[in-house]
Amino acid sequence: MTVGDTNRDTALFSTQGHGKDGAEKTALSPGAQRSDFIRQTVNAALKLVIGAPVEKNGGERGIRTLGTLARTTVFETAPFNHSGTSPRLQLYKLPVRRCKQNYARLGFPDYAPFTRETGMQDFTDKVAVISGGVNGIGFDIAKALAGEKCHVVIADLDQEACDAAAAEISAQGVSAIGHKCDVTQEADIAALADAAWDKFGHVDLLFNNAGVGAGLVSSTKMADADLRWIFEVNFFGNWNMCMEFLRRFKEQNSEAHICNTASENSIGWPMPRMAGYNASKAAVLGYTGMLRMELPDHISVSLLCPGWTQTDIGNSGTRRQEKFGGPKPARPSFPMDGDFFPYEVETVGAHTLAEIKNGSFYIFPHYAARHLAEERNDEIIAAFDAQTGPSPDWQKHDTRSFFEAMQAARNNKE
After folding, report:
1. 202 vs 254: CA distance, rounded Å
2. Is the pTM of this model over 0.90?
């Protein structure tokens, strides 16, 4: 299938918006009239280099295809518009085999970022470990997994709550255990992994879902203890869980998947007075993107970015550990008057599993977060177009091109 073959591709060189009813609409950008020419150029170049034009993948859209080719054929061909409404080209990722073949021709056969076509397809008799699993999003994921006949290990701060949650999951006909784990303690994480492998003999999925929030407070008034608590749980806890289970996944050498829970706060700025939370979730996005490029083929990764969801994260301070200042008083919930209200938590679990099967890196269960990403990305591209322009040798200054050249040189030596 070539670029521009379907109705969806009418927006390839356009800006997209949404009406009041939420329906998607397309407003053509200034470069739309050149779209046919550019599409033909891209497809001709792709056919010349890899023997076929770009193909679509239903599971994950808008992913960067072959970097060098996209840069030289698209961005140097498409006109740069300094009004802030530059044309966009949405390229679809190449099949894994073809993309790896192409990178091998360029001298780095083991480097093929963003090329996974599908994820884990069958959860039957797999084993999943879920941090922050006793309620909220973590527990909804556990229920969805049990519905797919996947066994579950539920981890959280309180053993009694873990046991109760595990009992409810077991009632769905799978095996489930609860295990107390403080993700800010590396010894607890190792003990959790030991317990999971001792019980089941293998683990196949990790859902890094533990997270906390410190409420709404301006950046200049945020307590250092709160900031460190947020980062220790949301980022370092996530990181340390990942590193412990990744080591074991590599040794196990069978298909495995990691799903890191980030947030709509990773992709935009929903509201002020959330600087610490926003920064911690942006950090999760940043390192998960690196994992996506670095992991071996048998381990896949995804980033779950829920929107405003009906969970108890607003009162996570009531369970704050003593080393971070101890428990905080319970906070009243925002009144739900019918005009504004969070998504129900049941909107997350089944959607997440479906997108893991699709091979999606970004998992977005909630439409209301879309405008946050669009707002940020539009501003970034507009700023680039207003402040910079292409030069004949710009690729010499490109970080990714530099890395690819280094990798090629190293592989040639080997």
Report:
1. 9
2. no
